[in-house]
Design goal:
285 residues; Rossmann fold; eight-stranded mixed β-sheet; 8 strands; disordered N terminus; binds magnesium ion; HAD-like_sf; Pyr-5-nucltdase; HAD_sf
């Protein structure tokens, strides 16, 4: 039975999750360490004046979605893998611990569950593994997914040889990557919060935005998600922000705050829990 069939009649057919600072709290320190590493890279590898680095880092982040996207837009040339390895390679991943509460919540839902992150594939897999969530998602839409021509890799990259999902089996079908290709051919990094990036993710995941709920800790990503027609949840905030339909101070509160996700599915729940444990996460890169 496909995902749509399992969730017929329910309000949501897909749960789309940002990863960093959404599936784990900002207090983990990864965000801060990541910013420090980006600034070190700008200083050491791009020879940007030390006094300029913090301001430039922030301004590029605001203007282009990520500092990396801004650096590329300004014409700095560097290898994407090298940048990601430098920025993520020394992160304090030890602070991320398995989260059985979130795992149980995710596995108790019938909807398709997909990660949509600006980060690279290696970081995404590391974080999901540390959190013990590596088999909770159907697929990952990451940097390499949206920027294929910048970093030529195979579109469908599985965790192991047995985990490749195809469109026929209800897995993600990335046949429509025209949006990502057309953008990357202009040498611009495609990432959230660009509306174009959200719309590309919707097409790649092959979901109906009106039946998809998008979780993210970034106010600007939430605003773009709403503009793209998604239902939206701001995570890490106890108050609603513009464009958000729900606010969750912590992802663990999702069942109390958004009961509709679990409505009308009790009869099939057990079957899905068993199925979910057998599905590996596929990276769309
Ligand atoms: Mg985030």
């Amino acid at each position: 039975m496909d995902a749509a069939g399992r969730t017929t009649g329910t309000k949501y057919e897909c749960l789309l999750f940002d990863m960093d600072d959404t599936l784990y709290p900002l207090s983990s320190g990864l965000n801060l360490a990541c910013r420090k590493n980006i600034q070190d890279y700008m200083l050491r590898h791009l020879n940007i004046e030390e006094s300029e680095v913090p301001r430039m880092c922030l301004e590029l982040y605001k203007e282009y979605g990520t500092t990396m996207a801004g650096l590329k837009a300004l014409g700095y040339e560097f290898d994407n893998d090298e940048f990601h390895a430098f920025v993520h390679g020394r992160l304090p991943y030890d602070t991320l611990k398995p989260d059985p509460v979130l795992r149980s919540l995710l596995l108790s839902t019938l909807q398709r569950k997909i990660i949509f992150t600006n980060s690279d594939k290696k970081h995404a897999l590391e974080v999901l593994n540390r959190l013990g969530l590596e088999d909770c998602f159907e697929g990952i839409i990451c940097f390499e997914t949206l920027n294929p021509a910048l970093e030529p890799v195979e579109f469908m990259d599985a965790l192991d040889d047995n985990a490749v999902l195809s469109g026929d089996e209800g897995g993600l079908d990335i046949t429509d990557s025209s949006a990502a290709n057309s953008v990357s051919s202009k040498r611009r990094v495609l990432c959230k919060p660009a509306l174009e990036a959200i719309e590309a993710a919707i097409r790649i995941a092959n979901v109906d935005p009106k039946k998809t709920i998008f979780f993210d800790d970034s106010a600007r990503n939430i605003a773009s998600g709403k503009a793209a027609g998604l239902h939206t949840v701001i995570v890490g905030s106890s108050v609603l922000i513009p464009g958000a339909d729900y606010a969750l101070s912590c992802i663990h509160n999702m069942k109390e705050a958004i009961a509709e996700i679990w409505e009308g599915e009790e009869g099939e729940q057990q079957e899905q829990v068993i199925q979910s444990t057998t599905v590996e996460t596929v990276v769309l890169a």
